[in-house]
Amino acid sequence: MVQDLPHRGPGRPPDPLARGARSARVLAAARAVFARAGFHAATTRDIAATAGVSVANLYQLFPAKEDIVAAIVAEDLAADLARVQVVADAADPVAAIHALMTGPLGETASTTRLRFEIVAEAARNPAVTGSVATAEATILAALTAALAHGQSRGAIRLGDPPVVLAALLICLVDGWFTYRTLDALPKDHGVADALRDMLARMLRP
Question: In terms of pTM, does the model score above 0.90?
């Protein structure tokens, strides 16, 4: 087990790098435990043990499991915003979306199960609802801006408002991950290629 850093006296300032490293370990551990056991079955003791920190140290970093979820949501939002920026900066935003769907956007089953857990908890836990709703609104606004920029350059078709195209894109991608994670589609079905072709038809001028 990785030992916690020794206690620092009141006269010594905290080490933000060490705290950041411990926080990163806790969040990585929480992702694994939440995806495996679910939010309610997961315990802070399990998360602390997986992270290699004490339970007391975990509570210093994250006073409640809801605080851990909010930090995970913030991490995922930052990654999603970086992907949207790739689309916004691309000369061909439709090709960029296609590349993301066949590359870094491809999630593991564990990652998608974790997203399900967080959304389900947001539906019943007001302490989680706010962070998830804020993240969803932020990514929708960013994607809307990226598609509007594409429309202004003639790279995205006109007709539908960019916010409608952004919402449709998010719904389609989220639905694809849902079905893929649940293994609800027959093997060798060609749905992934069909989905990318449909998105291209929806977005290209």
Answer: no
